[in-house]
Each structure stands twice: as structure tokens, then as C-alpha cells.
Amino acid sequence: MARVKKTDPATSPPLWQVRRVLALGRALSDEQRTRLNELGTQEGVLQIEPVHGGRVAVTYDVRVWQYSRLLNWLQAKATGFSRWRAGWYDNQDSNLAAQSTLKAAACCNTPPRA
Description:
By secondary structure, this protein is of the alpha+beta class. Helix content is 33%, strand content 18%.
């Protein structure tokens, strides 16, 4: 049986904040390094950290950025399975952005009618 990891709501990140790992290739070009440094100064990008194997983890605000926009910014090409993953992440990002702007409904806080 799989173990379910419980998260503490007080320490979990907000709904609009996501961390995605982008594969940029083993050797980053000078242009990609420059674009990566520029990306770190953009509004909505919270953290950039290198990951082993030519990958970069980017934590960003889905209300401002989407995964495909990150790929375009860094001029990374999605091929094969990564194209499917890019579409999946875009769908998740747009759903999270929409959900984070909704007001909580009060349907459960109303008493039943007599």
C-alpha cells in the first residue's frame, strides 16, 4: 500500500505558487544563461535553482507566468514526451490561476431551511 504524504496547510505553499523543473540540455549556451538571469528579475518568478543534469527548477506565480511562456522565454524546445508534459503543465497552471482568484462559496456555512 502506498504511503500518503500529509501536508500541513500552515506550511504548504499558496495555491498560485508552483515549482517546475525545466530540462535545458547538458550544456547551457551563453544566450540561455543570459535569459535565465533575466528571468530571475521578472515579476512573478520567485526562485530559480539549478538541478543536476542541465535542468533548472523555477518557482513561479501561475497568475503571471505559465509553463509554455517559461519555455518560450528560455527558448527551450519541447519534443516528444516533454511536449505532452508542457501541455499538461499549461493546463494545470491555467486551472490553478483560475482557482486562486475565486472567492470561497458560502454554501456550507448556511443553516438548512426549516
